Automatic annotation (TrEMBL):
Residues 1-31 form the signal peptide. Keywords: Disulfide bond, Glycoprotein, Glycosidase, Hydrolase, Lipid metabolism, Lysosome, Signal. It is an enzyme of class 3 (hydrolase). Pfam families: Melibiase_2 (PF16499), Melibiase_2_C (PF17450). Its EC number is 3.2.1.-. This is Alpha-galactosidase. InterPro entries: Aldolase_TIM, GH, Glyco_hydro_27, Glyco_hydro_27/36_CS, Glyco_hydro_b, Melibiase/NAGA_C. GO terms for molecular function: alpha-galactosidase activity. It catalyses: Hydrolysis of terminal, non-reducing alpha-D-galactose residues in alpha-D-galactosides, including galactose oligosaccharides, galactomannans and galactolipids; a globoside Gb3Cer + H2O = a beta-D-galactosyl-(1->4)-beta-D-glucosyl-(1<->1)-ceramide + D-galactose; a globoside Gb3Cer (d18:1(4E)) + H2O = a beta-D-Gal-(1->4)-beta-D-Glc-(1<->1)-Cer(d18:1(4E)) + D-galactose. Its main location: other. One of its GO terms (cellular component) is lysosome.
Length: 420
């Protein structure tokens, strides 16, 4: 039921709005003190799309080589990615030569990276972008390349000397929990000691969960973001699993996220093969709600205009990058519809409604506005804009009104509720 503008609003509702502002302004846990990732990191990461393809003879266009990264850097600059915030171009596993050099330093595979990582970093910086690299806290990387155990200080310094701006630190091949925890901490301090600003992306909790519950307050003091759950695949099942894990564990992980430290549900696979249009909308909307790092893993040389527009949607990116930095959560699940919400700055809210029913057509869902945002999303009234699957002004709503929307199977409707 829409409300005509101009109706008088009771003062106590405005007072409630003020109270909400105070309540939501409470600072989260202390973050890693490197001044980085004040909003979730945005960029591109090679793993999901290109994996460990080292055969440049047979597959010169998709093997892990400096050429691949230079092409992506060029496109990030020329095709509008950088302009909307995608800044970090990140190398994952399989960039290394099988052995360290005579001084114990990691080295890039000389055939695939003839200019070395420093050369690539210079190129990436010349495009106004930043370079991310990958290493592992254990004895070997997940794909079997040299691990950093015993070399944390040397590796941190090497990355800083090369001009690297982000380190994804994996957790394969660790001998013990102590090794894992101490290793992640040691590398964090070693990176700080280099004096270079290097975003530190961890997988510490993911590798810890099978043994014991991670201490997120501590992890946040060392890492700028941290993976909690399995690797994302290019499939709807994988996206569903990640969302399920996140909502099941939200009591533990949501409050700890904030400027400087974020939960990382893994890469965006939008623009690849496995997700339908509606499922891609769901990933984009929910990654915005979850305040997730937006690291695309796709081929920017071959991407549909539709996927590109979705990934470059400024309104959705603005939700993801909201400066208050509060992660959203699942509010309810009923009859195969999930409602998620996220508090934003200026007392606005983002609300996502996902239709998980995989039979039948689009479904109508009616929600009472008063149930959103702990009752505060629309006090005494608000303007609602649908952002996804397409931008549409829904208009002026009163706290007491209902909102009826239609959601495609496996799709999501993303809304922004803002003060009038
Ligand atoms: C692990 C990580 C992935 C990727 C691969 C590389 O599985 O979780 O994100 O980095 O290793 O081998």
């Amino acid at each position: 039921m829409k409300l005509e503008s101009g109706i008088q609003q009771p003062g106590f509702l405005l007072a409630l709005r003020f109270l909400a502002l105070v309540l939501w302004s409470f600072p989260g846990a202390r973050a890693l003190d490197n001044g980085l990732a004040m909003t979730p990191t945005m960029g591109w990461l090679h793993w999901e799309r290109f994996m460990c393809n080292v055969d440049c003879q047979e597959e010169p266009d998709s093997c892990i080589s400096e050429k691949l990264f230079m092409q992506m850097a060029e496109l990030m600059d020329s095709d509008g990615w950088k302009d909307v915030g995608y800044e970090y171009l990140c190398i994952d596993d399989c960039w290394m030569a099988p052995k360290r050099d005579s001084k114990g330093r990691l080295q890039a595979d000389p055939k695939r990276f003839p200019g070395g990582i420093q050369g690539l970093a210079n190129y990436v910086h010349s495009k106004g972008l930043k370079l991310g690299i990958y290493a592992d806290v254990g004895n070997k990387t997940c794909a079997g390349f040299p691990g950093s155990f015993g070399y944390y200080d040397i590796d941190a310094q090497t990355f800083a000397d090369w001009g690297v701006d982000l380190l994804k630190f994996d957790g394969c091949h660790c001998d013990s929990m102590e090794h894992l925890e101490n290793g992640y901490k040691h590398m964090s301090l070693a990176l700080n000691r280099t004096g270079r600003s290097i975003v530190y992306s961890c997988e510490w909790p993911l590798y810890m969960w099978p043994f014991r519950k991670p201490n997120y307050t501590e992890i946040r003091q060392y890492c700028n973001h941290w993976r909690n759950f399995d690797d994302v695949y290019d499939s709807w099942q994988s996206i569903k699993n990640i969302l399920d894990w996140t909502s099941s564990n939200q009591k533990r992980i949501v409050d700890v996220a904030g400027p400087g430290g974020w939960n990382d549900p893994d890469m965006l696979v939008i623009g690849n093969f496995g997700l339908s249009w509606d499922q891609q909308v769901t990933q984009m909307a929910l990654w915005a709600i979850m305040a997730a790092p937006l690291l695309m893993s796709n081929d920017l040389r071959h991407i549909s205009p539709q996927a590109k527009a979705l990934l470059q949607d400024k309104d959705v990116i603005a939700i993801n990058q909201d400066p208050v930095g509060k992660q959203g959560y699942r509010l309810r699940k009923e009859d195969n519809i999930e409602v998620w919400e996220r508090p934003l700055s200026d007392l606005a809210w983002a609300v996502a409604m996902v239709n998980l029913q995989e039979i039948g057509g689009p479904r109508f869902y009616t929600i009472s506005i008063a149930s959103l945002g702990q009752g505060m999303a629309c006090i005494p009234d608000c303007i609602i804009t649908q952002l996804l699957p397409a931008k549409r002004k829904l208009g002026f709503y009163q706290w007491t009104s209902d909102l009826k929307i239609q959601i495609n199977p496996t799709g999501t409707v993303l809304l922004r509720l803002a003060a009038n």
